[in-house]
Amino acid sequence: MGILDCRGALAGRRAVLIGGAAGIGRAAALALGGAGVDIALCDIDDESIARTSAELRAMGRRVLGMQADATQPRQLAQFYSEAAHFFDGIDTLVNVVGGTCMQPFMDRSERDCADDIQRNFGYVIESMRHAVPLLQRSGRGGSIVNFTTIEAHRGAGGFAVYAGAKAATTNFSKAMAWELGPLGIRVNMIAPDTTPSAGNAAAIPEPWRSLNADAPPEWWAKAFQMYIPLQAPPVADDLANAVLFLASDLAKSITGQVLHVDGGAASALGMLRWPYDEGATLPVPMGGTLRKLFG
Fold first, then answer.
1. What is the per-residue pLDDT across 98-115, written as a single tens digit (0 to 9) for each?
2. Transmembrane ranges (predicted)?
3. Which of 173, 280, 176, 192 is nearest to 241 (CA)?
4. Which residues pair with 187 in a beta bridge?
5. Angstrom distance (rounded) from CA 246 to CA 219
């Protein structure tokens, strides 16, 4: 065992992951499992639950995998009831579930807006309500990690209600960090931006989805070099590493914080490396790019 494993002190702990069977959730579950954490996870996809649970058991972990839609309060409550019987207490909660579809606000129905709010904020409230008593049972505090987004920190056209709901999750998490601090329970957030995943691909409607599919990989690489300071988007394992850090004793004095795992996109605030302007980094293109676009 290396020095980081010793100082992280995750081995033997227990975690609940909401949306933990596929994509970013799967990566987080496997990372925690690899660090010696036993896992209770729920997801909507039975096949992904079976696959991820099998991978965790192959690591020697105790696993509860259950099909449940976290946005449905009764299903979420049933999952937590099962988790409470499976573990006598937990040390970590990771709320991964979220998502939307890019669409102008005035084109979204009341049902669409209500779903966006529940999927990206409402269930987080209920999940934490269920989880805090389980965290208290451990007698040593614990860590809650809520996934928010870069869109909670900027005007995100096409994602208005989603962005508002994630901003609510962000501020709710900060308030809960204050309330739960005396119990030794830390509450932090991870804010991704563009991450290669099925969920992010599904958020893009037609005709853009088809146009994106037709773009060769080298075009995407150049686009990310313009937009992301580190030149490429993080992958799911990068986000999982952030979960490991925030769940571990390496972050034992960190609470109420947003960790932007986005290659630096949030820090850039719209600055771009335009391709024909000899390295100029500005929110708007200069003469070289303007000539290529409009000349």
1. 999 899 999 999 999 999
2. none
3. 192
4. 144
5. 34
